[in-house]
Design brief:
Number of helices: 18
Helix content: over 70%
Distance between the termini: 46 Å
Strand content: under 5%
CATH superfamily of the largest domain: MFS general substrate transporter like domains
Oligomer: single chain
Radius of gyration: 24 Å
CATH class of the largest domain: Mainly Alpha
Order of helices and strands: HHHHHHHHHHHHHHHHHH
Number of domains: 2
Length: 497
């Protein structure tokens, strides 16, 4: 009997390592995370089709939106957030930001979207501006659909604040150090499950007819209200328990300014290579995904069809990521850090290059007898598979090996180095890809298809550079591990003496 109990406990430790006494905190936090990620992907499925299917729009406008509108709005919002954190508690800030999102999405679905034809400038005016100033035509597209652009930016901010900043800061502040080792892997799985559930939800929205934007925004608002209610419950019923007082909580993130981040990067070769890894992924996936979205729009010009395709794609991404997450840990242990870290640049470079070959070879492929939608569909699915494998390898191999790279460092360099690498690499990686595309469009006057040969070369070159950086970092990583082992050996020898 005891044997089976031991087997059961081992099985639970491997699959669901949460004690019964911890469920009162784990379940509400899991629901908060599920609602946040579900809404994040719901908004993502909505925001791209709104822009891509607008009159005179195209995938190119997304790069301009991200760089020239979303990025400044994010920076301004972060300044406001930091001032709010000085004036209010984390709980109050969570409520204020969530309420602001609820207000906007209700206002958009009830006022801005139903009357967008009246609020947007006439198509003739926008077209005249595009003809007069063709270099800046994508800026005029943003202006011509300003309510949709506003929705796009606010949807981007949802992921930045409610997911990246608010939830994880709350989790780091209120999850014990020992709990974090068991909670966080399950949180990742819960996020992937939310992606799986999204497909039938979107299909239901589309099949019911009527205003899918209104229904989707209502779902997002209900999700935000559930998060606020559960947050209130955790703070009033769970955290006041005696066992949560004066306990060593999970380490808080250390946020550095851009200037401080650059200073750390310049003084540490090791951290510099980590930042290059993060930056390379951000730029590479941006270049591949932007081109892919331009091909998707050609195949699915209708918003409902595009939403359905995005939901289907999100479903497969969630499933593949869950599968890869459960297999990657064993592979990293078996193959070692270097091979595990090299998988992502190899996957991104290989599949990204294949996708661009299809984009570049469209005219030559016409000779095979594949015409029209059949050829475009092939390109879309090759690009979709490329993005799927790239993001799956990122979550399964890139993120774990990146975090492992900080372990052998001393406490100060580990803390500041992680803040510098993550802050600089993520911030610059998200904007540099869009900045490169938008700059090339302005300088050449070409659309994304016309720039495909240049972007293909950038993807290949960046993948090679990324690969070599990982190789260099692996040497430094092994040296740090040996130094750490030698130091522990010396301490043990001194103690025995």
């Amino acid at each position: 009997m005891n044997h089976y109990k031991n087997r059961m406990s081992t099985f639970r430790l491997a699959v669901f390592p949460i004690a019964n006494s911890e469920l009162g905190k784990f379940i509400p936090m899991s629901i908060i995370l599920f609602c946040t990620i579900f809404s994040f992907w719901m908004l993502r499925i909505l925001k791209d089709p709104l822009i891509l299917t607008a009159p005179g729009s195209g995938a190119e406008v997304l790069s301009f939106l991200k760089l020239y509108v979303a990025l400044p709005c994010t920076m301004i919002s972060m300044i406001i957030y930091m001032k709010m954190r000085k004036a209010f508690s984390l709980e109050s800030t969570y409520y204020i930001i969530s309420a602001a999102f609820v207000f906007f999405f209700l206002f958009f679905s009830l006022v801005l979207y139903p009357y967008h034809d009246l609020l947007h400038p006439p198509i003739e005016v926008v077209q005249a501006l595009k003809n007069s100033y063709p270099v800046f035509r994508w800026f005029f597209v943003i202006y011509g659909v300003w309510t949709f652009s506003l929705f796009y930016v606010v949807s981007e901010l949802w992921g930045t604040f409610l997911l990246t900043v608010m939830f994880w800061q709350f989790a780091n502040d209120n999850i014990l150090t020992e709990e974090a080792k068991r909670y966080y892997p399950l949180f990742i799985t819960i996020g992937n499950v939310a992606m799986l559930v999204l497909k039938p939800a979107v299909q239901l929205l589309i099949s019911t007819g009527g205003d899918d934007i209104l229904h989707a925004c209502i779902v997002v608002c209900i999700s935000a209200l559930i998060q606020m209610a559960l947050l209130y419950y955790i703070n009033r019923k769970v955290l006041p328990a005696p066992k949560f007082k004066d306990m060593p909580y999970a380490s808080k993130k250390n946020y550095l300014s851009l200037r401080d981040s650059i200073r750390v990067l310049l003084h540490s070769e090791y951290i510099g290579y980590v930042a290059i890894m993060i930056l390379s992924y951000g730029v590479t996936i941006n270049l591949v995904e932007s081109m892919w979205k331009s091909q998707v729009r050609l195949v699915y010009p209708n918003r409902a069809e595009l939403m359905a395709f995005n939901a289907e794609y999100t479903f497969w991404m969630g499933g593949v990521t869950i599968l890869m997450n459960y297999t990657s840990k064993g592979l990293i242990r078996k193959l070692g850090w270097k091979i595990g870290a090299l998988i992502t640049p190899l996957v991104c470079g290989f599949f990204g290059t294949i996708f661009y070959v299809f984009v570049l070879g469209k005219h030559m492929l016409f000779a095979t007898g594949l015409h029209g939608n059949a050829l475009l569909m092939m390109t879309v699915w090759v690009g979709g598979f490329s993005v799927l494998m790239s993001k799956g390898s990122k979550y399964s191999f890139f993120d774990p090996t990146k975090e492992m790279a900080f372990i052998p460092l001393d406490v100060d360099l580990r803390t500041n180095g992680k803040a510098a690498a993550d802050g600089f690499g993520e911030r610059l990686g998200k904007s540099l890809g869009g900045g490169l595309i938008s700059s090339l469009i302005i300088m050449t006057g070409q659309d994304l298809d016309g720039l495909s040969h240049i972007l293909a070369l950038v993807v290949v070159a960046l993948s090679v550079f990324w690969f070599l950086s990982v190789h260099k970092l692996s040497v430094l990583y092994q040296n740090k591990l040996r130094e750490q082992a030698d130091a522990q050996h010396d301490v043990g020898f001194a103690c025995s003496s």
